[in-house]
Amino acid sequence: MSERFAPGSKTSSKLRGGRVVRVALHYRVAFFPKGSFMVRSVYLGASSAARVASDLDRQIVDALTSDGRISGREIAQRIGVSEATVSRRLATLEEEGLVVVRGFIEPKSVGCTGLSLARFVVDGDSAAAASALARQTGFHRVSRVDGGQQLTALVVGSTSAKVLDHIDIALSTISMLRLERASEVLCVLPPGCTAPDAFTIADARVPRQAAIQSKLLQAVQTNIRQSLNHVSEAIKASPSATRANLQRMIETRVVRPVVATNPHFMGTPVVTQLRMSPRAAFREGLTMVRELLPHAWIFQCIDNESIVAESAFESFEAVELRAAAIRNALANADVSAHLLLEVHSDLFDWWCDSPCKSAK
After folding, report:
1. Judging by DSSP bridges, how do beta strands 334-344 and 42-43 pair with one another?
2. Do 239 and 229 touch, CB atoms closer than 8 A?
3. What is the pLDDT of residue 251?
4. pLDDT at site 202
5. Which of 161, 142, 140, 158 lies closest to 150 in space, CA to CA?
6. Nearest alpha-carbon partner for 5 in 115, 137, 147, 119
7. 229 beta partners
8. What is the pairing mode between strands 139-145 and 297-301?
9. pLDDT for position 266
10. pLDDT value of position 345
11. b/e code 63-78 from CB counts within 10 Å (16+ = b)
12. DSSP letter (8 states) at residue 201
């Protein structure tokens, strides 16, 4: 377990057998005993990783990243092992919550036109407040920030007014919360996505088709690799119609397969939120950030033309190096790094103004 020191405190010369890590962006010092696994964030909603990914695990993850619905046979052929080996390993990874391929849907494509990245200050138990906030309607990726009593969350609603309603209800329900700021979000970019696309669900002149697609979108958000028979039963459509609609949605990028992994399992336990205010052209800045953080979730905000990215790193040194690279690429932009101690409700399985059905 790590020992944390207050900003400005001095480390003792008696700290033997370990190493001192200085986080320049936070001005915090952390000591990790020699040989310890550097775990500083808790990824809730997934099983705690008891091991680090093997070479086989990483090859499977790479294959899924290139094609979220690739078959086990194709993965086996690609990496040179038996199909049975891939099937067993995939089943284990999914059952343990270590790797899952979700269907990410741009919120506006399902009628969620109001998005806000909210920051709260907690007067009390921040862990309890984060858990309670994650259960509120409209709140996603509720994170507890290290170094203070602060929470962040993506709030989603059918309209901007509905987002404010969600925030007001949360504040009245959780008395220890105080809203510090809320920034309107223009778009959410999943890992690998360079720019928002023009999304569309279905032709309004074909109500039956629109209904099928709407149900299908809900079904694939948690796991896009579900069998077609399972999904078709859930949405009450034929397997052929389900297959055709899903393929069309993927091809037109209405839904994007996104591989979600437990950061501890992948050996990148330092989950960090980077907040940036580019001085370069905003669009150009967004492109540069994506190039430097290919696996990050990126939130494009209106407030001060800011960009917020959440990514996992193998060490504090890696965070420092990447933050410095971003600062240089964005013409000395303001960049701050904030370690996330916990992340709740990270599924992004929104359906506007309805209570989230996912496990919190």
Report:
1. parallel
2. yes
3. 86
4. 42
5. 142
6. 147
7. none
8. unpaired
9. 92
10. 66
11. bbbeebbbebeebbeb
12. -
d(CA 175, CA 339): 25
Residue 195's pLDDT is 66
Reading the block at residue 261, the tokens are 């992994």
Strands 3-5 and 28-33: antiparallel
Single-letter amino acid code for the residue at 50 = A
The residue written with tokens 């919190």 in the block is 360
Distance set, CA 53 to CA 7, 47, 93 (Å): 34, 14, 10
Residue type, position 307, single letter: I
Residues 246-266: b if buried by 16+ CB within 10 A, e if exposed: beebbeeebbbbbbbbbbbbb
Helices (H), the chain: 55-66, 72-79, 83-95, 126-134, 160-173, 207-220, 228-235, 239-251, 282-292, 316-329
| 278-336 tens-digit pLDDT | 765 667 788 889 999 999 999 988 876 689 999 999 999 999 999 999 998 888 788 99
Confidence at residue 215, expressed as pLDDT on a 0 to 100 scale: 83
Q: In whole angstroms, give the CA distance from residue 214 to residue 216.
A: 5
pLDDT value for 5: 27
Q: Which residues of the chain have pLDDT under 50?
A: 1-42, 44-47, 198-207, 356-360
Question: What tokens appear for 104 in the block?
Answer: 């990410």
Amino acid present at 70:
I
Are the C-beta atoms of 11 and 31 separated by less than 8 Å? Answer: yes
Backbone angles phi, psi at 250, to 5 degrees: -70, -45
Name residue, tokens 């990726």. 141
**How would you classify the pairing of strands 42-43 and 150-157?**
unpaired
Which two structure tokens, joined as six digits, stand for 360? 């919190």
- Predicted local confidence at residue 197, as pLDDT: 55
